[in-house]
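Today's session is about reading a structure prediction critically. Students often jump straight to the picture, but the first step is always the sequence itself: look for stretches that repeat, for charged clusters, for runs of hydrophobic residues. Only then move on to the predicted structure, which in these notes is written as discrete structure tokens rather than atom positions. Here is the chain we will use throughout the hour.
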Amino acid sequence: EVQLVESGGGLVQAGGSLKLECAGTGFTFDRYVIAWFRQAPGKEREGVACITNKDGKTFYPESAKGRFSISSDSAKRTAYLQMNNLKPEDTAVYYCVADRALCWGPEYWGQGIQVTVSS
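Below is the predicted structure for this chain, in token form.
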């Protein structure tokens, strides 16, 4: 059974940083694509970062470039999302996702974790 478990969320002031973690089990971690999505209240889910574990390539939408950074440690079966200079509009539930090949159409989803940025 595939499991993706997020941790590291919480409340942070605007301008602060958070690092989310995603522990993956039940699949061949180093052959999968791992991404982070988020969903703010009243908005659609959007992808914010992606990494292909086979070669370490990363992908970001324009809205996340420069402030968000994704990384992965296959030995620990854990992916990370470093978020800097957070803004109130970054408030959302953040999801870790996994897929065999795709960044933005994942097969597996974590439960999600709340990130709240206060102004």
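Discussion point for the tutorial: The CA atoms of residues 32 and 87 lie 30 Å apart.
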